[in-house]
Design goal:
The structure is a single chain. The chain has helices at residues 21-50, 59-80, 84-88, 103-113, 118-122, 124-127, 131-147, 158-163; strands at 91-95, 165-169. The chain has one domain (21-169). The longest helix has 30 residues, at 21-50. It has a two-stranded antiparallel sheet. α1 (21-50) packs across α2 and α2 (59-80) crosses α4 (103-113). By secondary structure, it is mainly α.
């Protein structure tokens, strides 16, 4: 039987601040830019390994490969505390007790983070939406999903709350006045 405070931060854990929504979204955009390179390399590797000559050949295999490669990227870096974009924006991901993520928890966070994209993509097929309409839906949903963090107790994104993780400010402490 687990104790009632199993997921609560330990009393000696430092008080961790949630980065502002603006900083988290700037990090999110930078992460997307870096992911372009990861996806490009994964696509190139997949094409070379499968000898795919046409972009539409093996597209479901390519999508699955990119999904797995992206998962490996995020799980690896999140279990270390930060991706490159998070390091740049001084944001760290930890569990509820302010500990580094296990790979299992990082994998759960990866699966739940697809809530940034799945709802608008799920309506694409049944409604026969074109690319421009889907882009508007994705941008709108991302804005709504980000703003919904305002209604979460710690101002965390909902997928973080559900995964038992949180984003915290990792800026180095500012030096105080020097003694004279």
């Amino acid at each position: 039987m687990t104790s009632p405070t199993a997921g609560a931060p330990s009393p000696d854990a430092p008080a961790l601040r949630t980065p502002s929504l603006r900083r988290r979204m700037a990090c999110w955009l930078y992460e997307g830019t870096l992911m372009f390179g990861v996806v490009f390399l994964a696509g190139y590797l997949f094409s070379a390994l499968t000898q795919t000559r046409h972009a539409l050949d093996n597209r479901h295999g390519l999508q699955a490969f990119v999904f797995v490669v992206s998962g490996i990227y995020f799980v690896w870096f999140w279990s270390k505390g930060q991706t490159l974009a998070m390091k740049t924006w001084h944001i760290r991901v930890v569990d509820r007790a302010s500990r580094p993520l296990t790979q299992g928890r990082a994998l759960l966070r990866y699966a739940l983070s697809w809530l940034w994209f799945l709802p608008p993509l799920a309506v694409m097929g049944p409604f026969g939406l074109r690319a421009g309409e889907v882009a508007v839906l994705v941008v709108g949903w991302v804005a709504v999903w980000a703003l919904l963090s305002r209604f979460q107790r710690d101002q965390q994104f909902w997928h973080d709350a559900w995964a038992g993780t949180r984003l915290v400010d990792a800026r180095p402490p500012t030096p105080g006045p020097r003694p004279s």
